[in-house]
Design brief:
With 376 residues, the chain is α/β, with parallel strands linked by helices. The chain has helices at residues 30-43, 45-52, 70-83, 103-111, 126-132, 138-152, 168-181, 197-205, 213-229, 248-254, 281-289, 304-317, 324-332, 336-347, 362-366, 368-372; strands at 4-9, 11-12, 24-25, 55-62, 86-96, 116-122, 155-161, 185-190, 234-236, 239-241, 259-263, 267-269, 274-277, 295-298, 322-323, 351-354, 357-360. The strands form 4 sheets. A 9-stranded mixed β-sheet has the order 9-10-8-7-6-5-4-1-11, sandwiched between helices. The protein has a 3-stranded antiparallel β-sheet with strand order 12-13-14, with no helix packed on it. Strands 15-17-16 form a 3-stranded antiparallel β-sheet. Helix 4 links the parallel strand 5 and strand 6 (116-122). The radius of gyration is 21 Å and the shape is globular. Bound molecules: S-adenosylmethionine and iron/sulfur cluster (SF4).
Length: 376
C-alpha cells in the first residue's frame, strides 16, 4: 500500500461537550497556522527522499477542516504534491461539520481537489444533539448530508452510540436518515465521556439518560444488522461501507502502512517509528517560524516482536482478520498466560478461523478489548 498524509486542522466554530480532540474555538490564528503547515511539509522533504513514494491518500482531520477557508486546504495539497507527490487517483478526504456545508462551501471544497467528505452528524434526533451542544439540528444535518452526496458522491457520516437520552428506536432513526440521504460509508463510535466534565456531571445527576454496557452492545448489534441489510458490510469495528467505498486512508492505520502527520498534534508513522507534533498551536507556530521541527515525541525503534503484535491487533480490527499462519507465529512467541487467553477467546466464540484467516466474531468485536489484552 502507498503511504498517506494526515493534516490536523485545530479549529472549530464551537467546542462540543464531549470532544477530546485538539480543537480551539474560533480561527483567529488560521493564517499563522497554515503558514506553519506549509513550512513543515516542505521541511520534511528528506522523508520523501527516503523512498516513501507518492501519497495516494490525504486526510484533513480535526477539529473541523470544513470551517477554514477551502483555498487554505488547497495550499496544503499543493505543498504535499510538490514535496512528496500525489498519485493521480489520490483519495482526498476532509472532515466536515454540517453547519459549514452550504452549496458554495461544498463546491469550493470540491474545486480544491477534495473528493470525499466525512461529516460529523452524531445523531439525527434534535433532543440528542442538544446535550452534545451541536450547533446544527437534525433537519439541517440531513439537508447538508444530502447536498454533500449530490456534490461529492463519496460521503461518509459519523454517528454515536450512547448519547444521553438515545434509545434503540432513535438510533435506528438516525441510521435510516443517513441511508435515505445517500451516504456510502458510516462510522459509528461509542460516546466516550470520561474526558467530558459536563457529561460526567449530567450522568451523575440523571443516570437514567445513559445506557449500560449491555444496552450499548445491543445497539451496536442493531446498527450492524441494519447497515449489513442495507448493503453496507462492516469492514472494521466502527466502520461500514458500500463495497468499494471503504476508506483507503483509514485502512492504512489498521495495516501499519506509513502515514505522515502534519499540523498541530498530528502523529506520524514511517513504517518503523511513531512520532508526534506539539499539541499547542502557539508552540507549533513558533517552532515552524524559527525553522525548528514541531515534533515533540519520537518513539525509540521498537522491538520487531512488539511491532508484529501491534500489527496483529490492528489486523484483527478489520473484518477480514489476519492470516492464520501469521496469527500462529505470533501466538507462539507469547508467554503462557496470554497464549491461554487467546485459546479461551476461541473457546468462548470471540475468535474464529474462516478460510485460513483468524478474525473476531460479532461477539468478539463487542469484547475486543478482552481479546487484545493478550497482546499488551
Ligand atoms: C473531528 S470530528 C468530525 C468533524 C467535525 N469536527 C464534527 O464534529 O462535525 C470526528 C468524530 O469523532 C467522534 N467523536 C468525537 N469525540 C468523541 C467522543 N468523546 N466519543 C466518541 N466519539 C467521538 C465524532 O463522531 C466526530 O464526528
Ligand atoms: S466534535 Fe468536531 S466540531 Fe465538535 S469540538 Fe470536536 S472536532 Fe470540533
Amino acid at each position: 500500500m502507498k503511504p498517506g498524509a494526515y493534516v490536523h486542522i485545530p479549529f472549530c466554530a464551537h467546542r462540543c461537550t464531549y470532544c477530546s480532540f485538539v480543537a480551539l474555538e474560533g480561527k483567529r490564528e488560521e493564517e499563522d497556522f497554515f503558514e506553519g503547515v506549509g513550512t513543515e511539509v516542505r521541511s520534511r522533504a528528506s522523508e520523501a527522499a527516503g523512498g516513501l513514494g507518492a501519497f495516494d491518500s490525504v486526510y484533513f482531520g480535526g477539529g473541523t477542516p470544513s470551517y477554514v477557508d477551502p483555498p487554505r486546504l488547497g495550499g496544503v495539497l499543493g505543498a504535499l504534491e510538490e514535496t512528496f507527490g500525489l498519485s493521480p487517483d489520490t483519495e482526498i478526504t476532509a472532515e466536515a461539520n454540517p453547519d459549514d456545508l452550504d452549496p458554495g462551501r461544498l463546491l469550493a471544497l470540491r474545486a480544491i481537489g477534495i473528493n470525499r467528505l466525512s461529516i460529523g452528524v452524531q445523531s439525527l434526533v434534535d433532543a440528542e444533539l442538544a446535550p452534545l451542544e451541536r450547533r446544527h439540528d437534525a433537519a439541517s444535518a440531513r439537508r447538508a448530508v444530502g447536498e454533500a452526496v449530490r456534490v461529492f458522491g463519496n460521503v461518509s457520516a459519523d454517528l454515536m452510540i450512547g448519547i444521553p437520552g438515545q434509545t434503540r428506536e432513535s438510533l435506528l432513526l438516525s441510521v435510516e436518515g443517513l441511508l435515505a440521504a445517500g451516504v456510502s460509508h458510516v462510522s459509528v463510535y461509542l460516546l466516550e465521556i470520561e474526558k467530558a466534565p459536563r457529561l460526567v456531571a449530567l450522568k451523575r445527576e440523571r443516570p437514567g439518560l445513559f445506557a449500560d454496557d449491555d444496552e450499548l452492545a445491543e445497539r451496536w448489534l442493531l446498527v450492524d444488522d441494519r447497515l449489513g441489510a442495507a448493503g453496507f458490510p462492516r469492514y472494521e469495528i466502527s466502520n461500514w461501507a458500500r463495497p468499494g467505498r471503504e476508506s483507503r486512508h483509514n485502512l492504512k492505520y489498521w495495516t501499519l502502512t506509513p502515514v505522515l502527520g502534519f499540523g498541530v498534534a498530528a502523529h506520524s508513522f514511517d513504517g518503523l517509528r511513531r512520532t508526534a507534533n506539539t499539541g499547542m498551536l502557539a508552540e507549533y507556530v513558533r517552532r515552524t517560524r524559527a525553522g525548528e521541527s514541531p515534533r515533540v515525541f519520537e518513539e525509540e525503534k521498537p522491538e520487531d516482536s512488539l511491532r508484529r503484535k501491534e500489527g496483529l491487533m490492528m489486523g484483527l480490527r478489520v473484518s477480514g482478520g489476519v492470516p492464520s499462519s501469521t496469527f500462529e507465529e505470533i501466538r507462539k512467541t507469547l508467554t503462557d498466560a496470554p497464549s491461554r487467553r487467546l485459546e479461551d477467546a476461541f473457546d468462548a466464540g470471540l475468535l474464529e478461523t474462516v478460510s485460513g484467516r483468524v478474525r473476531l466474531t460479532r461477539r468478539g468485536v463487542l469484547l475486543s478489548n478482552e481479546v487484545f489484552q493478550a497482546f499488551l
